[in-house]
Design brief:
single chain; 131 residues; mainly beta; OB fold (Dihydrolipoamide Acetyltransferase, E2P); four-stranded antiparallel sheet; elongated
Length: 131
């Protein structure tokens, strides 16, 4: 009986999980998970860039622009150091084949950009900092 490890992505209740499974070549064998399916999920990456899992969660008055829904960063419209006004377009998220404009909640300067184009982000993750 030959076994092989394979990486697979499963979806449970609309959330994606990356798992490693051991595949048995024996026709009657089952697939056994090497990592629990309900373990802390990893955010899948689209087109290579790292997900924005390490971005800080915002606190009141912190200046962190928070992701309003889970999706993929389709475009970033500002650069670090750029001055923005309240309501300026910061980035575009794609979720469920629809684009969502993320706008500046206040005027300031873009101090840090945590998001990357093509990266999957979860609701509540910090996308950028406006100082």
């Amino acid at each position: 009986m030959v076994t092989q490890l394979k990486r697979m992505r499963i979806s449970v209740d609309g959330k994606n999980y990356d798992v490693t499974v051991e595949v048995f070549e024996d026709a009657g064998a089952a697939v056994r998970s090497q990592s629990p399916a309900l373990a802390t999920p990893t955010v899948p990456s689209i087109a290579g860039p790292s997900p924005v899992a390490a971005a800080p969660l915002a606190t009141a008055g912190s200046g962190t622009v928070v992701c309003p829904l889970s999706g993929v960063v389709a475009a970033i419209h500002v650069q670090m150091g750029q001055a923005v006004k309240s309501g300026d377009l910061l980035l575009t998220l794609e979720a469920m084949k629809m684009n969502t404009a993320i706008r500046a909640p206040r005027a300031g300067t873009v101090g840090q950009i945590y998001a990357q184009i093509g990266a999957a982000v979860e609701e509540g993750a910090g996308l950028m900092l406006i100082a």
